[in-house]
Specification:
The chain has about 150 residues and is of the alpha+beta class. Helices cover about 40% and strands about 35% of the residues. Keywords: Signal.
């Protein structure tokens, strides 16, 4: 008789263990699916805000260049994302944490100005000295894009 109770207890435990997973699948299925056009529109908005935010608030942006001494002179430097270089691709995923993934590609330019003093460097003409192509992978989860 004790073996029967042990089997019953194991079966009840297995059912209780499997119930949260079944509820999570049901909850996920009940969330209305957004169509690809809505997701793409949100991505376009996210990318525009992201590029604008990066170009105005990173530590070494156009409005806040960094100034360092180099070879006895002062060099002011800032970086900027070229908005015209932005390319986006969207992919649906089978991941349970996010439904879409994007491939965000852009060119980041580095500009420098050289002067004898910090003020001269900050006020001087900036020239592009370096460009690099970057790729980021934002994810779409819970109705919004995250980077």
């Amino acid at each position: 008789m004790s073996k029967v109770w042990m089997i019953v207890a194991l079966m009840c435990g297995a059912l209780l263990w499997a119930a949260p997973a079944a509820q999570a699948k049901t909850a996920r299925a009940s969330v209305p699916a957004e169509d690809a056009a809505q997701v793409k529109a949100k991505l376009d908005s996210f990318v525009a805000e992201y590029v604008q935010r990066c170009n105005t608030s990173v530590n070494s942006c156009r409005t806040k260049p960094t100034v360092v001494p180099r070879d006895g002179r002062m060099v002011a430097t800032y970086i900027e994302i070229d908005p015209a270089s932005v390319e986006i691709e969207v992919f649906p995923t089978k991941d349970k944490h996010f439904t879409y993934m994007a491939k965000l590609m852009y060119v980041e330019h580095t500009y420098e100005s050289v002067g004898n003093t910090q003020e001269e460097a900050l006020q001087g003409a900036y020239k592009r000295v370096k460009s690099r192509r970057l790729t980021e992978l934002p994810r779409y989860a819970q109705g919004k894009w995250q980077n």
